[in-house]
Amino acid sequence: MVKEVKELVNRPDNTAYTQQRLPAWQPMLSAGIVIPGFVSIGLVFIGIGVALFVTSQSIQVLEIDYTGVEQSSPCFKCSDQTGKKCDCVMNFDIDSLFKGPVFFYYGLSNYFQNQRKYSVSIDYNQLTGDLDYFTNPDDACFPFQNDRNKPIVPCGAIANSMFNDTFQLFQLVNGQKKEVPLDGKGIAWWTDYNTKYRNPSVTPLRNAFNGTVKPPSWPQAAYELDTEDTSNNGFINQDFLVWMRTAALPDFRKLYRRITEGDYASGLPAGNYSLEIVYNYPVLSFDGRKKVVFSNVSWMGGKNEFLGIAYLVIGSLCVLMSIVMLIVYAKFKFPEED
Amino acid sequence: IRVDSRTIYVGHRSSSTNEAFIPPKFCDNRIVSSKYTVWNFLPKNLFEQFRRIANFYFLIIFLVQVIVDTPTSPVTSGLPLFFVITVTAIKQGYEDWLRHKADNEVNKYPVTVLEDGRRIRKESEKIKVGDVVEVEEDKTFPCDLILLQSSRGDDTCFVTTASLDGESNHKTHYTVPDTEKDLESLNATIECEQPQPDLYKFVGRMHIYKTNQEPAVRSLGPENLLLKGATLKNTQKICGVAVYTGMETKMALNYQGKSQKRSAVEKSINAFLLVYLCILVSKALVCTTLKYVWQGKPGQDEPWYNEKTQREKDTNLYLKMFTDFLSFMVLFNFIIPVSMYVTVEMQKFLGSFFITWDKDFFDPEIKEGALVNTSDLNEELGQVEYVFTDKTGTLTQNNMEFIECCIDGFQYKYQDESSELDGLCVPDGPVSKLQQKAGREREELFLRALCLCHTVQVKESSEQGQAHEQRGFIASSPDEVALVKGTVVERSSMYELLHVLNFDPVRRRMSVIVRSKSGETLLFCKGADSSIFPRVKQEEVERIRMHVERNATEGYRTLCVAYKYLSEEEYAQADAGLREARLALQDREQKLMSVYNQVETGMSLIGATAVEDRLQEEAAETMEALQGAGMNVWVLTGDKMETAKSTCYACRLFQRSTELLELTVRTLEDGGRRREERLHELLLDYHKKAVQDAPPVKAGVTRRWSSANQDYGFIIDGATLSMVLNSSSESNASRYKNLFLQICQNCTAVLCCRMAPLQKAQIVKMVKNSKGCPITLSIGDGANDVSMILEAHVGIGIKGKEGRQAVRNSDYAIPKLKHLKKLLLAHGHLYYVRIAHLVQYFFYKNLCFILPQFLYQFFCGYSQQPLYDAAYLTMYNICFTSMPILAYSLLEQHICIEVLLDNATLYRDIAKNAMLRWGLFLYWTLLGVFHGLLFFFGVRFLFSNPALQDNGQVFGNWSYGTIVFTVLVFTVTLKLALDTRHWTWINHFVIWGSLAFYVFFSFFWGGIIWPFLKQQRLYFVFANMLSSVSAWLVIILLILVSLLPEILLVVFRKPRGPNARQIAPVTPLSYKHLKEDD
Fold this sequence. Notes:
The complex is a heterodimer of chains A (338) and B (1078).
Chain A: H1 31-58, E1 61-65, H2 76-79, E2 87-94, E3 98-99, E4 102-109, H3 116-119, H4 124-127, H5 132-135, E5 146-147, E6 150-151, H6 157-160, E7 166-173, E8 176-179, H7 190-196, H8 205-208, H9 238-244, E9 252-259, E10 267-268, E11 271-278, E12 289-296, H10 305-337
Antiparallel strand pairs in A: 1-12, 2-11, 3-10, 4-9, 4-12, 5-6, 7-8, 7-11
Chain B: E1 5-9, H1 41-50, H2 53-67, H3 74-107, E2 110-115, E3 118-123, E4 132-136, E5 144-150, E6 156-161, E7 167-174, E8 188-193, E9 204-208, E10 216-220, E11 225-226, E12 231-233, E13 237-244, H4 250-254, H5 264-296, H6 310-314, H7 317-332, H8 338-351, H9 353-357, E14 371-372, E15 386-390, H10 391-395, E16 396-407, E17 410-414, E18 431-433, H11 440-452, E19 457-459, E20 472-474, H12 478-486, E21 495-504, E22 509-516, E23 521-527, H13 529-532, H14 538-553, E24 556-566, H15 568-583, H16 588-599, E25 604-615, H17 619-628, E26 632-636, H18 641-650, E27 659-663, H19 665-670, H20 675-692, E28 712-717, H21 718-725, H22 730-745, E29 749-753, H23 757-768, E30 776-780, H24 786-791, E31 794-798, H25 805-809, E32 812-814, H26 819-856, H27 870-880, H28 882-891, H29 897-902, H30 918-942, H31 957-979, H32 985-1007, H33 1021-1026, H34 1029-1052, H35 1060-1063, H36 1072-1077
Parallel strand pairs in B: 15-26, 15-30, 26-29, 27-28, 28-29, 30-31, 31-32
Antiparallel strand pairs in B: 1-8, 2-3, 2-4, 4-13, 5-11, 5-13, 6-7, 6-12, 8-9, 9-10, 14-32, 16-17, 16-25, 17-18, 19-20, 21-22, 22-23, 23-24, 24-25
């Protein structure tokens, strides 16, 4: 980097920038700023922490493992058969009102939706309804790209492994089963449902799938996901969308239904309930677990103790540190301060 | 086959008609300083760029990504690499284009060539060896020419070599004696040595063929050679024959670049890089191992939902492991920041402008500011431990003033011209007599000697009739001007100049042989006392020696003048010897030298002169500041001990209380024993005094501040130094060297006098390679300092009077010595702090960038799943976090410049690469690890329930990564904001701007379905994240938790103790001191 000053008569510019004299703010972290700062941060954090903690405590959660590992589990009979349809019923009690709206999640453990090979095994162009990719799925979908030379739609491992257990919830009132209405709308991201995924603009939808096959693990084709509601069918089926948003961690839960309607809009009243499960999804082969989770949510989302505790701990630490600093300063520093 | 000499046919005329004339092949007169052509630019430049280890590493990573199925697309590493390569290529291309332009300007320059009597205009590049070229006044010579004909009557021409070595005085060059006036009929060949770069050496022979005569032979020397690049002055036009052309000219041969100097910071970077490479490899190894351990558990390797392809199943296990390893390498490779090199380069390049721009470095006298020849060493200016300075022209002004002279032991003082003149003295000579005076004939002889024995040219002023004050003097040495000015004698005595026995630094004297009107042949000799005294009659010496020594202790430069009458035989012998030696093609120097030495003997001493060399402005203050900053100042000079010593006293390098340890020829001869023994004894003695008896120096507090200690100054001369370095026995040599170094390291100042240029470099080299590898700086102004300027870590040239050679070879050039203080204490200090922080910060920010990605592997089945989206991976170093640190590294002033200049001791706080020590590196690394862990696990615990929105919907893995990334970008930027103590509007702009840009970009990137992307992973992820209160809270929590310990550390790390005030501003993040100074 050789620079040559060609002009001999060049007195350097006398500007603030060239002379490194730009006006500058020189902040100073002195005890006078740090201690009140810590105290106020600490107090704010403790405040937020208390709010979070109280909120989190008020959230009710009910988890039911229905994998059927133990022999006592009603679903034990279903756990050994893979792929075959099997029904089992889990009964449970609710002691007090489970405040609504109640959210119905299913949870999977030791299930790696975030495996790289798995998470790239998707053809986004198919899922926007581009018919060219129906006949010619992307290579990334391999080995769920073609099935006996027929293209799989939707292709790829994610779609193929879509969770397909189904649930029905009944309240047992006087020995009568009273179905709790489950709302399958509004469980997927609004943008996923409205803009990101699109069905091909072919009516009826099934015609678009001519010449293609369903993913091998699916019991029905994509156009049969919700035969009653066309706006919840195909690639914009909300269960499908929820599944396609791959989970961050191997133990995850996904939203299955919301309980917002009828008698249960304000929550699940105390009583006996029975959950009828159509057990399709095999998880024991990879030592996984399945569960259903009932939970209500607050402004901070689902139950999460971590945030509240973390805010409380950090807030208290800040206050503690400011006290320590105050002591240290009172003993050693104050004469120097001025 | 390379022959030792080349033969040139002047005007392409063959010597004899019967010989077949084969024109020898020489290179054409094209100067090519450019590196590339349009055609080879791309391959050659790319090749050169990928020779850099870092670029090559990134290329390999890129290729791995292209070939192997890796988690991130090749774009993520290819784009930054492409950016870096392109920027560098553009920069180098631009520089080369400038060189092309400069080359063309030279090569297309029109010149006049004489061909068969006709004058033909040609482009400069068409000149061939043997062409006769005509050059007019004020034009530069297009190639190296042998002067054949000059328009001046006395067969001379004047030349300035300002653009070659910067010496702006007029030098006289001579035509080849006795050549024909008619160049057309000149039939001659020139035999000369092959091209070599020494500007001042040339030997050749010219054979002139005349019909019916024996060929005449003339010797050619540097005085006949006109160098390409020099300019013709005071002469209407000349003709010369081209001997060296194009790339073989001395100028082109001298053009070759200097060797690359590397700064200590760069070495630190490479060391850190190695550590990070180890971290990278071990991370990849850990992940690969764990992957296969984990997969060994039943059911994990291939769950039904993630079936492997047949090909994967068939692949060899070890090959799979290897590709997995490579994939992990690629995934984590961002830990080694490609952008750091760009940022460092930009910082150095842009930062160096502040030196050139500094108006404090502007010298109104020469109308120039500082010059930066290399920006690679900016930070090294803040690390200097040893300063080697030249005396003449550096510590002193090299502006000679005649002070006094002594003739036969009687003293004459110079007085103002207005003062009364002693009638008895030379009529209008400004030399007046004090007390007694010597015999008149001695006076006259002395003045005559001074008048004759010089190379001063009198430049006639244009207005005739003006008094002699109007005359300007141009000479090859400023000493001479002063002398001649002091002794202007209007005397028309005619002397015929017979020979000039030129000055050279080895003999340290010059002589002239003249013939007076009366036919007597005289030799006048002028030189340093040490070189004259042994050559004159001993009885005369004592009287004058006293004066010389007294003058020397007063800090004057002294010269002794001697003469002798030469008898006819003596002269004839000398004349023959000189002529023969001058004609010699080989070993001309040695032959001349022996003749000189032969002639210059048995002279009688007439007198001595004293010329004052004034100290540079603020020399003492500068030296004091340098010493206060903990630098050892060594004065290396060719001058004699007494003069140098007095300069040292004047510069306050030696104080009155300083005990001087002398190791010179004189002290060695004191004991009357063998020199070697005495040397041994003295060295041990001094070592005991200065090293063993001195109380151990506490770190941070040096001798100067503890007054109880005795100061030592060490003096050594060239002869003794060579004894120390080249002792007779090998074992002694290294032992002496060690003793010598230890003594010197414990002395406040060291003076080395009577040094040859090469010895100066030797000393620098010795110190440079001594224990601890201290950073050395050499400063000088003359050609004799070039060797040490090149040798030292940092070479500083002073734009002085002794030419531009030092400036050209230096890394930085400043107009005056006093500028050194600001250059080191302010600029050097700031540059070092800036770049050190830059380097540490870069490693830190990439560690906490990649660590979460590493940790994520434990939660995704070691499947190389990236945590962040490819856009974030690519943009992190390029856009989101690069500008604030660049602005910081250009503008940061942790202490303001005035304070740095006032408290030289602040410089000690960053000595020995203080901010890039392993301890601090560890601190930054741990900080990075802490932040990385915090980011990852904070979000991990949050995601134990991924239902983070108040509508019960869940977040996926890209939300996870985006939250971590948001925390990351904010934390590292705010961490820098916390470290910034000098907030100009630029800092505000880039810091808040970067954060705003990140938010804006994330919205933008997630807001559109990008048609070129295979997966819309981030579609509305960022916006959704912001709609979650929990995400906001976790982001705020993690950022604050990351930064609060930093703030705590600041508060508790406030220094205590007596030195707190000095140390305070340098400890990162203590702002106290600054406010006080505002």
